[in-house]
Write a structure and sequence with these properties.
Number of domains: 2
Number of helices: 6
Shape: flat
Number of strands: 0
Order of helices and strands: HHHHHH
Radius of gyration: 24 Å
Structural class: mainly alpha
Strand content: under 5%
Length: 193
């Protein structure tokens, strides 16, 4: 079995495992919510088990939910949402790594394709940086934050000149919206996949 096929099988097992864990977490969260909202007697044997085992694990998340103005009984649902988002992120990361692995294997068999692969990766990184830059501008995050600064460094060469040419629409800078198709067009013109 090839390396890529083995990796695909591994990702399939991880997906299935995450699905079953998510289904179990959904049942646990529904039961915990029912106990917390008194739809199930909170003094029954199973409810006491949950209050003794599950509630302490949810306590840190419950504090965050309450500080944000939410109801403590919704902490279990927020835990489920966090699990689902984390699982989607993990699967997306594994799929991305699988794509990189197959590209590297393909280039190792055809070394003449290496420059095109590197250019394709460079365009992908600049597009990700552009997306991070736009999304971070929606939140009160400093562009000088160590988590965001890299996206500005990678996109300033394009955004600053476009910002001088393209007028703002009120408070909205549309130069990143113009930069994305510009990058895609440049990528197609160079014949980069």
């Amino acid at each position: 079995m090839s390396t890529v096929a083995t990796y695909v099988a591994f990702v399939g097992v991880v997906r299935l495992g995450l699905f079953y864990v998510g289904a179990l977490a959904g049942v646990v969260c529904a039961f915990d919510w029912a106990v917390r909202t008194r739809r199930i007697n909170p003094f029954s044997r199973s409810a006491r088990f949950f209050r003794g085992r599950i509630d302490p694990a949810l306590m840190p998340l419950e504090r965050v939910v309450v500080r944000a103005g939410g109801s403590p009984s919704s902490a279990a649902w927020w835990a489920l949402v966090a699990f689902v988002v984390g699982a989607i992120g993990l699967i997306s990361l594994l799929d991305f790594l699988g794509g990189v692995l197959s590209q590297v294997i393909q280039v190792s068999q055809q070394p003449s394709q290496a420059p095109m692969l590197l250019l394709s990766w460079a365009f992908a990184i600049v597009k990700i940086a552009l997306l991070v830059r736009v999304l971070s501008s929606w939140f009160p995050i400093s562009p000088y934050s160590k988590w965001i600064r890299w996206s500005y460094v990678l996109t300033d060469w394009m955004i600053i000149p476009l910002g001088r040419l393209i007028p703002r629409i009120g408070m909205i800078d549309i130069s990143p919206i113009v930069a994305w198709p510009f990058l895609s067009l440049l990528q197609r013109m160079l014949g980069i996949p």
